[in-house]
Amino acid sequence: MAGMTDSAFRRLVKRHGGCGLVVTEMVSSEGLVRGIDRTLEFAEYVDEERPVSIQIFGGDPGKMAAAAQIVEGMGADIVDVNMGCPVPKIAKHHAGCSLMKEPAHAATVIAAMTKAVRIPVTVKMRAGWNDQQRNAPELARRVEDAGASAVAVHGRTAAQSYSGAADWDLVASIADLLTIPVLGSGDCVEPEQIVERMRAGVEGVLVGRGVLKNPWILAQASDLAAGRAKRDVTLEDRGRFLLDYIELLLRERVDESRERTHDRWVVNKIRALAGYFTKGIEGGAELRSAINSAESLSALQQLIEAFYAHPVATRGAYGGSKGTFKSVPVA
């Protein structure tokens, strides 16, 4: 979720309901300790997002403890340790999922952090490094003994990345094994799947890519869990979300002299989100292509307004086939 779930996006999801915990993009412990501005930006949040967890990565116990103290000083409710990222540039520095290959060392990191701060320290992990090292149960026990307050388990190995299916039987077995709360993650892209997983013995479900496609998924899952019909989401709702997101991103501009640079940054953020957000709707491919071709922020805003307000009229203009755009609720 790095580069995707910035504060503006998280706020909008929170406003639509159903979100119990917000987690930031993962932040380098090294960057926090050194006070690098770009790193500190990744950790920024507002009170509207609470309860909020700042997720950090690293493999040095001392630096991770110091970074946890910085997170606590920033007022975060929780500091989370990423032991699940499979990206090579993270793993090669003995961080992310590579910590799963050294469970004793990983526990040492958690022990140093829990001794350094008063806020809860939590851990996100995967099933293991690969199929030969599916050691999530062992690591979960070790970090619990080291003082972790909760663990989240993504039911795939690092080698799988996002291929195949998440192993929720493994997640459930770890929930039975530990006394601290266990959250699950993986393949929750429909609200019904979230409700099903919540009823399988875990204390919570983390949703990543599913929220990028459908920011209302948590609210819809909350509806279903309460015995209500899940709320409808119209095309106009989806268009308004993108425009509201742009507006929030624009408000983050602090240096008017860099307006063009900032506008380009906003355009790039929308392009990245559109890869998920436009999937599953008729004309989505044409819309993605048009968004990627937009040459300015104002052109992008006009494009979004036109498409979501008048999809039938605009499809042909973007090279799509003629026909009726079906305005159906998004699940």
Task: Measure the end-to-end span.
Answer: 21 Å
The CATH architecture name of the largest domain reads: Alpha-Beta Barrel
Poorly predicted segments: 312-331
Write down how many β-strands occur, each being a DSSP E stretch of 2 or more residues. Answer: 8
Radius of gyration: 21 Å
Mean pLDDT: 89
Order of helices and strands: HEEHHEHEHHEHEHEHEHHHHHHH
Structural class: alpha/beta
Helix coverage percent: 40-55%
The CATH homologous superfamily name of the largest domain equals Aldolase class I
CATH class of the largest domain: Alpha Beta
CATH fold node name of the largest domain: TIM Barrel
Envelope shape: globular
Biggest β-sheet: count, sense, barrel? 8 strands, parallel
The percentage of residues in β strands lies in 5-15%
What number of structural domains do the residues give?
2
Query: Counting H and I runs of at least 4 residues, what is the number of helices?
Result: 16
Report what the structure shows.
- The protein folds into two domains: 7-223, TIM Barrel, CATH 3.20.20; 235-317.
- Helix content is 48%, strand content 12%.
- Strands 1, 2, 3, 4, 5, 6, 7 and 8 form an eight-stranded parallel beta sheet that branches.
- The protein contains 16 helices and eight strands.
